[in-house]
Amino acid sequence: MAAAANASTLAWVPSSRRAQRRMGSSARVAAPQRVARAELMGSRVHRQGALCYIGAMPAQKVKAKTRRGNAKARSTTEMCSILACYDPDGALADGREELMRELSARMRTRGPDGSGYYGNERFGLAHERLAIMDPEGGKQPIVYEEEKYSVCANGEIYNFRALQAKYGLTAAQTGSDSEVLLQLYRHMGCDFVKELNGIFGFVCVGDDGERIIAARDHCGIKPLYMGKGKGNSAIWFASELKAIHDQCETIEEFPAGHYWTPETGFVKYYSPEWDDDAFVGKEDTSRVREVLTQAVKDQMMSDVPIGLLLSGGLDSAVVSSIIKPMLEETGQEFITFTIGQEGSPDVTAARMMSEYLGTTHHEYLFTSEEACAVIPDVIYHLETYEPELIRSAIPNYFLARLASQHVKVVLTGEGSDELFAGYLYFRDAPDSAAIHKELRRIFHHLHNVNCQRADRMTMAHGLEARVPFLDPNVIDAVMQVDPEYKRIEGEEKPEKHALRALFDGEIPAPVLWRTKAMQCEGVGLNWVEQLQVFCEAQVSDEDFAKANELYAINPPQSKEEMYYRRLFEQNYHNMDKFVHVWEGGCRAGGAPWQNEAYTRAGLKSVGQLAKGLEGVKGAPTA
Question: Which of 80, 190, 451, 520 is catalytic?
Fold first, then answer.
């Protein structure tokens, strides 16, 4: 059994959890020398045949990438990324390919399956590829040599086959969904972007560099940055800040739901009817389930195995309930993943959901010490110093690392709270109009918050996260719902009641009706407090007294915030304009009403997250 764990691989150690409980701690299987956790627990057979694995991560993997320094100095594991240079004057023609390959390699964790380059004196396209659709034939950049068109893209176009059929496009040369971008650009010009349903950041080049278009998906699920070159007219595009932060005089985040051309500048193509404070939704929820089911079906598109990040919360439970019959129909294995500390609400609820669905379930139980050790690496990949986002990203980092050992693609429940008013501070909303206005506010921050976390933490491990709740058709259906359906009215009508009611009887009641927990809260009731104690120990009183002097933009308000800021500055000096910091220090702080749930440091009462769940460690006693 000890041989199953070593310094380079995960160890899945089969043993009965029931037997573990019968044995005293001294009788448990001894951990191999270099494994991070002292306890190794493994599989058990749930009813309906679910297998559950608890993984032991090697200590080396927990700590190996916590060193600091610039992007070149960091070694990377092997995510999908794009890097493009539009250089109409040819200022960088000499040596551009070598330079771009070097810069693109900074993002290689996004694309472990290969890299590519294409260009001429006017442009260059570089790509790091995570092969999901047509792994053998879909290498990028995709080039039509004769027509002189090329593209590099990050993400997935879910409706690519429907678009090829709708417009009678010529036979594709590859099975890659990204090829439809070339086909549509040639067929209909820039307007094709409005037709896309997917998650993407891409650059298309036409007429060998005479024409170019860059675009980002409707709500910024996939990242994209744009910058002006130092001392030249070159325009750079990159999936991550780290690739171009030292190449540009100015950089800006490419706005979600826009495309760009040299002739038009930024053009907003995503303008849904509901996106107005004065809009009044009048629909009920009768369409929501049908539209969400179609989105899940569309996003199951893959030529490689897909898993589900099962947090034990409502949103991932809903997605899991929709996925189950689809996988049964195709005979595919249902693989789920959970992160948390032993006895946490998320782990407890996820085990219940896995047992109910009969999934092959993988867990990683992290310690507070491990969480502190990976802070530098999390900030490097996340490219932020925003404290609420970092706290939630740390467990996501462990979860993505676990899932990447088994699959290349996962579905998640991200985005539901921004549609159904799921956060606990909505308990204090004064009326339905205020709810809709607040949902618009936090929806338009998704690209800097949930989407940034989900993308960066998964792609740090060569894993793609898909978000069916943020399918544009799902967004439209839920935002058209009368906001009265989203009002919280005590325990009889808790947060996201409208969504819960659609799946009543299909999800175990303790999961269906459990209290909403943000990721950093549900994985353990006390670990954030321990994290903050660690951070405070890294900053002296003397240094903290200089915070306002050192950081003119968003000065840290606590030692925790200052520690994160230091780590950010080590890799992204003077890039603080790209960091979104919530007004008031947390999401709830910017709401137009006083909230009783959250402070800058997090949720005030974490004990409520254990409601309805048995065996939660640290839960308040009656």
Answer: 80
